[in-house]
Amino acid sequence: MFTGIVEELGEVVSLEPQGDAIRLSVRGPLVVADAHHGDSIAVNGCCLTVVEWTVDSFVADVMQESLDRTSLGSLQPGSSVNLERAVTARTRLGGHIVQGHVDGTGTIVGREPSEHWEVVTISLPPELSRYVAIKGSITVDGVSLTVSGLRDGVGPTFDVSLIPTTLEMTTLGRAQLGDPVNLEVDVVAKYVERLLGAREHNTQEETA
After folding, report:
1. Pick from 75, 96, 103, 184: CA 20 to 30 A from residue 3's CA?
2. pLDDT per position as a tens digit, 120-176
3. What is the CATH number of the domain that holds 172?
4. Residue 61: which of 13, 101, 21, 26 has the closest Cα?
């Protein structure tokens, strides 16, 4: 589990094709300072498992399903990535509960700079729009953010307002229009939907 508070801006060192997978090497001295084999590190919001590490980098295997469902397949050597280690019992939950299980990808479709912040607009897959609410939480490339605007429709979008710290310390500060981003909706919303669906099903059975 993660909190969506990026610890370090890492850099992709290499991507080694392995048929239906890639072996991804990422430089991140902070997140590997206490790394062990099998540890989880979120890379742009995608939970990956450490299989090798050095004093300043780690290696993870990325399966084809992850490449198909996330933006990791678009990474290149030199790409910047958001990194966060899994939480511990003593970790402060500064963001929200993040699983590192990407639900889909969106696209940066707008940026509106202001004096002290920047509003970024991101496209949202229609099937995920029901989980997103104004003032609710969403994870974008591993960054825990609050939804500040939402427009439903054929091509639903949502807005997030980024403070200077987020712009400086994460990849969102340099993301360009058209760039893909990984999205993870609030897991609480998914559990609520599941419970309500089960309740409705049981009610229908009782009245049948």
Report:
1. 75
2. 999 999 999 999 999 999 999 999 999 999 998 778 999 999 999 999 999 999 999
3. 2.40.30.20
4. 21
What dihedral angle (degrees, nearest 10) is formed by the CA atoms of 24, 10, 69, 93? 130
Closest to 41 (Cα-Cα) out of 7, 92, 78 = 7
Among 24, 55, 85, the domain boundary falls at: 85
What is residue 206's predicted lDDT score, i.e. its pLDDT?
Answer: 53
Which one, of 154, 128, 152, 153, lies nearest residue 140 by Cα? Answer: 128
Provide the residue range defining the domain that includes 133. 104-192
Which among 111, 118, 117, 152 is positioned nearest to 132, based on CA atoms?
Answer: 152
Query: Which pLDDT does position 93 carry in this prediction?
Result: 82
109 and 188 in a single domain? The answer is: yes
pLDDT of residue 198: 63
Closest CA to 188 of 131, 106, 105, 125: 131
In a domain, 141, yes or no: yes
Residues of the chain under the 70 pLDDT cut: 198-208
Residue tagged 């939804």 (tokens): 147
Q: How far is CA 58 from the centre of its chain?
A: 19
CB 70 within 8 A of CB 46: yes
**Alpha-carbon dihedral 154, 155, 160, 165, rounded to 10 degrees:** 170
Looking at the chain, the number of H-run helices and the number of E-run strands are 3, 12
